[in-house]
């Protein structure tokens, strides 16, 4: 197994694309609703191995995304066997998002997988500008996942995923999602179009149960995470993963006690744009109220800031990771003012005014 680490400088992406919106790529593969319906009807009749075999023929620039959970390992093993059948064919390479908070057992598993599948190439993407958890915490504060889980998901998973798709020119991806995992995954099709990210998603084991996946692992001597034997059926970051009790759904140990079932990479991208747009709108409304209460007649910059997105930011390193470009439309009665420039770590963000009475503000969050 060959492992490629894709690191980005603090100044931004290699492509110089600095906003969330700019990473919305047009699909390289265009499927009509009729085509999707036909593919799903046919794939429902096939085994996972045949779905993978057909996907390799149908979809160019095909990659597998995995955190080396059981389903991903089964897919990896099946792909390895398919490639052995046709050694001249293009291999399906792997994308791994290293959040910097994976269990040590997960990293140990990757080393064992590397030995077991020496021909597989793994592309590892880290949070932008960070190579260790301590660097991440210096920049964004301790336990960001607790006080701002949306921002954590974006920085640790969503942005690196976007960057991986752009860097590798991804057109289609194989995922490890299954219907038996429940929640939002309960009725996923085998083939779907992610229009926001511009990729085709294939869920080759969508029809399989946890027991089928586990049995395949045992029958085919596939390396697996030793945490499985300790009751961890679904494994992500150490801070948001717990064992599950007998009879519980396999993903019950993820984000236990929270109203959350996904880490962000399968959520709508607009979820994060809306989140930051609401902050911009709130800032504009506060500025308008302050103006009406009799601030100085001459417009001037203020020291207002967006709600803090990080803890311990007084000693944090400058936050240069680009996030989103969002726009908030706010009705501002009376005199209109320029909003301040604030970043997630307390620095300022540029807001500009357009129009007259009903104003449209552009907010670039870095």
TrEMBL record:
Q: Which UniProt keywords apply?
A: Amino-acid biosynthesis, Cysteine biosynthesis, Methionine biosynthesis, NADP, Oxidoreductase
Q: Which reactions appear under catalytic activity for this entry?
A: [thioredoxin]-disulfide + sulfite + adenosine 3',5'-bisphosphate + 2 H(+) = [thioredoxin]-dithiol + 3'-phosphoadenylyl sulfate
What GO biological process terms does the UniProt entry carry, in alphabetical order?
cysteine biosynthetic process; methionine biosynthetic process; sulfate assimilation, phosphoadenylyl sulfate reduction by phosphoadenylyl-sulfate reductase (thioredoxin)
Tell me its EC number(s), please: 1.8.4.8
According to its record, what are the GO cellular component terms? cytoplasm
Q: Where is region (Disordered) located?
A: 241-260
Listed GO molecular functions? Answer: phosphoadenylyl-sulfate reductase (thioredoxin) activity
Phosphoadenosine phosphosulphate reductase domain ranges (all copies): 62-243
Keyword Zinc-finger among record annotations? no
Instruction: Decide whether keyword Glycosyltransferase is in the record.
Output: no
UniProt pathway: Sulfur metabolism; hydrogen sulfide biosynthesis; sulfite from sulfate: step 3/3
InterPro entries noted in UniProt: PAPS/APS_Rdtase (IPR004511), PAPS_reduct_dom (IPR002500), PAPS_reductase_CysH (IPR011800), Rossmann-like_a/b/a_fold (IPR014729)
In Pfam terms, one family for this protein is PAPS_reduct
To which protein family does this belong? Answer: Belongs to the PAPS reductase family. CysH subfamily.
**HAMAP family tied to this protein:** CysH (MF_00063)
- Which PANTHER family has this protein been placed in? PHOSPHOADENOSINE PHOSPHOSULFATE REDUCTASE
Q: What is this protein called?
A: phosphoadenylyl-sulfate reductase (thioredoxin)
Originating species = Xylaria bambusicola
């Amino acid at each position: 197994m060959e492992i490629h680490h894709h690191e980005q400088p603090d100044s931004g992406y290699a492509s110089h694309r600095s906003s969330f919106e700019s990473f919305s790529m047009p699909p390289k593969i265009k499927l009509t609703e009729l085509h999707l319906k036909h593919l799903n009807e046919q794939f429902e009749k096939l085994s996972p191995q045949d779905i993978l075999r057909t996907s390799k023929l149908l979809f160019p620039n095909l990659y597998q995304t995995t955190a080396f959970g059981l389903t991903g390992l089964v897919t990896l093993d099946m792909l390895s066997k398919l490639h052995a059948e046709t050694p001249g064919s293009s291999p399906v390479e792997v994308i791994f998002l290293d959040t910097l908070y994976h269990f040590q057992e997960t990293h140990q598993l990757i080393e064992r997988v590397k030995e077991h599948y020496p021909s597989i190439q793994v592309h590892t993407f880290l949070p932008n500008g960070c190579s260790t958890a301590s660097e991440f915490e210096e920049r964004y504060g301790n336990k960001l996942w607790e006080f701002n889980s949306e921002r954590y998901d974006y920085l640790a998973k969503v942005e690196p995923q976007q960057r991986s798709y752009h860097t590798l020119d991804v057109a289609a991806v194989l995922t490890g999602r299954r219907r038996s995992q429940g929640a939002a995954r309960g009725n996923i099709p085998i083939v779907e179009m992610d229009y926001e990210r511009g990729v085709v998603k294939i869920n080759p084991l969508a029809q399989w149960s946890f027991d089928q996946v586990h049995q395949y692992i045992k029958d085919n001597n596939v390396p697996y995470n030793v945490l499985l034997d300790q009751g961890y059926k679904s494994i992500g970051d150490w801070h948001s993963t717990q064992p599950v009790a007998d009879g519980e759904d396999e993903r019950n140990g993820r984000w236990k006690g929270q109203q959350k079932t996904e880490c962000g990479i399968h959520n709508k991208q607009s979820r994060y744009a809306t989140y930051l747009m609401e902050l911009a709108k709130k800032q504009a409304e506060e500025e308008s109220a302050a103006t009406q209460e009799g601030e100085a007649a001459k417009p001037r910059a203020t020291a207002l800031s967006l709600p803090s997105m990080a803890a311990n930011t007084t000693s944090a390193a400058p936050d240069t990771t680009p996030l989103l470009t969002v726009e908030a439309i706010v009705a501002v009665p009376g005199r209109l003012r320029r909003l301040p420039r604030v970043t997630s770590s307390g620095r300022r963000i540029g807001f500009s005014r357009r129009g007259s009475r009903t104003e449209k503000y552009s907010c670039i969050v870095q």
